[in-house]
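Narrative of activities, Objective 1.

The group set out to show that a structural description can be obtained from nothing but a protein's sequence at a throughput compatible with the screening campaign. Below is one input-output pair from the validation batch, recorded exactly as produced.
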Amino acid sequence: MAVSTQRHPRAHVAVQTRDRICSGASLSNDPRASRRKWTHVTGILCGSLLLASCREGPLDPYGPIGQAERIILYDATTIMLAVVIPVIILTLGFAWWFRSGNRRATYRAEWEYSGRIELIIWAIPALVILFLGGIAWIGSHELDPPRALTSTASPLEVEVVSLDWRWLFIYPGEGIATVNYLVIPTDVPVHFRLTSTSVMNSFFIPQLGSQIYTMPGMTTQLNLQADKAGSYPGLSAQFSGPGFSDMRFTLRAESGAGFAAWIAQTRERGGVLSSPTFTELARPTRGGGELTYGSVAEDPFESVAGGHTKTHWSLKEAL
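Output recorded for this entry:
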């Protein structure tokens, strides 16, 4: 009686797998496993990048204005997705239903109008515009930059002068000034008065909200508040010359006691913001560091806001 030596297919695969394991070969060398591995890695990296982009931006607010603006962004996105997602689904559904291989799809060559479809087509965009317009109308009034914030604490007054290409912050009540950084107390409204020496700039602290422009010979106002101690980056969001990309500053929010201690240390440090000092600061400078002035002999804000400061530079000086 002859005995068959042919192995069963499953047994053959099992033997091959056993041999690969015993010989030290890794099962991960399978091309399909490698593709799945890279797919998982790519997905994790993309997710990490998306989450990282939310840090230090409008979607990671630490103040009442920034939180209200985030709600507006979420509401507007939800309203638009309520239209975009059904349109994408219907587009794919129509493409699948009216494919060439579907014999149940009816081709109506003489069909040209449907009142119900026209009503839906025009009603949905009208509702979207109505909802988005309502959100913008209400938000623009409730979050009007000059509008004072509701708080039991008295607001801190800060004067902001955008230079070429630095930021000057003056505390008129405390008689001190800083360059390229400012310190504020937490849970206290801050009333900013802003102007510019020579060109238009844009004052923006993404995590606190409300970008606003600074213009020469004019004064704009902004009210912000930080609810948590920490450092928040600020920047100029307006192209204003070859040094605008380095025109950044840091807002440091401290507790009430920490802010009072910083004021005392700043006054002890010395340094005077005088007219000659401001003239030197106003000269075009790229990427200047942080400076501190323990006293302000002459507050230049009103002179700059009134257009009385001469800031005309030659092309060589500006570059």
